[in-house]
Automatic annotation (TrEMBL), chains A, B:
GO cellular component: cytosol
Domain Amidohydrolase-related: 67-449
GO MF annotation terms: guanine deaminase activity; zinc ion binding
One GO BP annotation of this record: guanine catabolic process
Family membership: Belongs to the metallo-dependent hydrolases superfamily. ATZ/TRZ family.
Protein's job: Catalyzes the hydrolytic deamination of guanine, producing xanthine and ammonia.
Record keyword Protein biosynthesis present: no
Species assigned in the record: Microvirga guangxiensis
Pathway, per record: Purine metabolism; guanine degradation; xanthine from guanine: step 1/1
Cofactor(s) annotated in UniProt: Zn(2+)
Taxonomic superkingdom: Bacteria
Protein name, per record: Guanine deaminase
């Protein structure tokens, strides 16, 4: 017996670059939020199961103009930077970090400030369709734990990391771990506390080991966190080869690339999430693939701070795991659909190059483009594979993390002409034009966790 | 006596790159929609004028969290392409044009289809803050006239062009003007009809002479339209040096650049709007400046179809007039605020380059970035100067075309912390993060022409 049945048309990209429409299907969801079965319209038990679910009050039926999309996966979010979203991006990276970002992050010693910001953040991300979020928090144990609790309370699938950063040469006095051992011990305590709260079996929220990036960590910290990953089986996230400065710094300190150094310290593991990775070499990509680690491609923040464009096409063609990251707040949008659009733009900039005064063949790197379906795959299945979770598409055994998209929603910018648009056209319009206004309902693990303001207002009216 | 007084804080960029906040001012608007005076808080008559306006029911007072921005100017929109917004952008330009765009545009022989699409388009653009729109329509006289009528009826400031394209070698059989003389005569009739409808004095809607682009026009048509511009004093718009193919085609046909050819035919005039202009030379920029023509920079569609990035910084530094174009539907967003964001990304791609495997100094064109304030200037004052209209900032003599932005609107993605954010931070957050949801009211020429769906729903509730 399914605990919930959803009737409607679902659109997804089950394999990279391949769009598929599941038209007028029944999606059966079990008690632990997993899709147990998907019944096509011509299935012999279709009408019976639908009628039964309706009688039992377990049926959700999509309306005309509504379509299901898989929930979106955001592999790279700095939760404490939420208050400065869209601010100070004219500043160079150093100023942005030292004058804005570190002072802001240091404020999360204040737990009530943390709770207020994190609640607003998680609600906004759910409303924008982010059903799985991978968070950097701050160095503060309590505030980081508050973020995990808020994700649990609001029903967002999440990985939450207490940030570790102890190197006095790179971290400001007012914002760093007291020592490598403190950072490792607090990370261990954080892992245990999150696991206690989220439960043993199929937890919605996971801890993740989070060295900020190599330059901000001493060797002792990197080594300690590597051992902790091995000891706890906890996933790891960090920044990797993000900019010229950062890559050169690591090269000078270790005589090796970020990827190689992370590997030496035991931090390059199955499902380690490497943010950016713009300057990885072919050898790095091979090592990342071999280890089963993954790249969080953050195209928007890359335009601002990366000094170049991540070779996405090359990574995909080498079958390296890649998903998308908003990189809040070095990226100024909380929307992973915006992330799809920016990944397309970055791939096209790489393809075409930038200088019209050069001959075409010298301008860009031909063959670097991705398709709309590939962009959406990155935002869903790609993110799921990066994390090793059964999310991102509609298939038996996968979690029912989904968005109800409404083309006719109040405030929609989508113009839909049923007699001119194929179902794939509708999909492309959603990926390229949908806004938060079109996301009328967000499901995580089989439960509704957000409804749009227009839908809420209609409910409020109905209640009056 | 002002016919309307608006009380609140207005944010704008009166000169290029300079942000200014007019805090807690009174903006006095006269009977023809022009700002007659702006009174600072400490003006001796401030309280008296405000009280008087309130008594007379002429006061609009902004609420906590609301700010005025100047209305946005979109210099390049293909109105008939609205139904395919966000569709088929994976296709190469030739396929996109021949298989999707020309067949769609040819449908506007059907006037009722045209009215339906154009009504939806103008409403959507007003809701997204586009107070001035420069439109390519189609070759159809009646449908193009319907667009002008709809702009008048809905109160959008607009330039509307009946497209002229007659060259059988480049235009499809099913969609082209019968001959050069037909196209010129119909354009002349169109200009007169729009002027009849919009009135002589300070019209809200203007006709604009619109050769599609040089490759689609015979010499006779280009010559005829150039003479028509001289005869009627009507502005001109066209595409210019948009891609490798197009630039090379013109070079082969005329042995000169687009800009030079347009000039020869009398089409490069004061306030001629040149869409794209990615491949203009330094000589072209000098000629554009000398003639007082302007460039509609369309960064989003450029990523898809331009083969390179427009040298925006260079154009600005040479004091060439530049504004922004959404290039609907080669651009997939109807929002000029998105246009600001894309202009920033394009400028940064040009600055940083795209290939991390090159040394930094060989990658990009250092010094190409623009600031957030410059991007917003392009979207407002820049667009106004391109068209020769007194719009885009809050100053006496300028039209009151304005947006009420609400940071606390339903569905807002902006996180605003008054004790952490300066007024300039608020401005940057609006430019980088505001969506249609934040635009609760749109004014053109001193009249409210759109209200957000949330605001409308609150009204509907109040009426019940």
């Amino acid at each position: 017996m399914p605990s919930r049945v959803i009737a409607g048309t679902a659109l997804h990209t089950p394999t990279r670059g391949r769009f598929e429409a599941l038209e007028d299907v029944l999606i059966l969801v079990d008690a632990i939020g997993r899709i147990s079965e998907i019944l096509p319209r011509d299935h012999p038990r279709f009408a019976e199961i639908k009628a039964q679910a309706e009688r039992q009050g377990n049926l959700t039926e999509l309306q005309e103009g509504q379509f299901l999309l898989p929930g979106l996966v955001d592999l790279h979010i700095h939760a404490p930077q939420w208050p400065q979203l869209g601010k100070a991006l004219d500043a160079p990276l150093e100023v942005w970090l030292q004058r804005y970002t570190f002072p802001l992050e240091s404020r999360y010693a204040d737990l009530s400030f943390a709770r207020e910001v994190y609640s607003a953040l998680v609600e906004t991300l759910l409303a924008n369709g982010t059903t799985t979020a991978v968070y950097f928090a701050t160095i503060h144990l309590e505030a980081s734990l508050a973020l995990a609790e808020i994700c649990l309370a609001k029903g967002q699938r999440a990985f939450v990391g207490k940030v570790a950063m102890d190197d006095a040469r790179q971290c400001p006095d007012f914002y760093r771990d007291a020592s490598a051992s403190t950072a490792v011990n607090e990370t261990r305590a954080f892992i245990q506390s999150v696991r206690d709260r989220a439960g043993e079996e199929d937890p919605l929220v996971h801890p993740i080991i989070t060295p900020r990036f190599i330059p901000s960590c001493t060797d002792a910290l990197l080594e300690g966190l590597g051992k902790l990953a091995e000891e706890t089986g906890c996933l790891v996230q960090t920044h990797c080869s993000a900019s010229d400065w950062e890559s050169n710094f690591v090269q000078e300190r270790f005589g090796a690339t970020d990827t190689a150094v992370l590997s030496q310290f035991g931090l390059l593991r199955e499902n380690t999430i490497l943010a950016h990775s713009n300057f990885v070499t072919d050898e790095d990509l091979a090592l990342i693939r071999q280890k089963g680690a993954a790249i969080a491609h953050c195209p928007l923040s890359n335009f601002y701070f990366a000094n170049a464009v991540f070779p996405l096409r090359a990574a995909l063609d080498k079958c390296v795991r890649v998903g998308l990251g908003s990189d809040i707040s070095a990226g100024h949008s909380p929307s992973v659909l915006d992330g799809c659009r920016h990944a397309l733009l970055a791939s096209r900039a790489r393809h075409s190059g930038i200088d019209p005064h050069l001959p075409p063949e010298e301008r860009g790197l031909a063959g670097s483009t991705i398709s709309v379906a590939e962009a959406f795959w990155l935002a869903t299945v790609g993110g799921g594979e990066a994390l090793g979770l059964p999310i991102g598409k509609f298939a038996p055994g996968f979690k029912f993390d989904a968005l109800v998209m409404d083309l006719n929603a109040h405030g929609s910018n989508i113009n839909w002409l049923p007699d001119l648009d194929t179902i794939e056209d509708v999909f492309q319009k959603l990926v390229l034009n949908a806004t938060r206004s079109n996301i009328v309902m967000t499901w995580v693990n089989g439960a509704v966790v957000a409804r749009s303001s227009a839908a809420q207002m209609r409910d409020d009216q109905a209640k009056q």
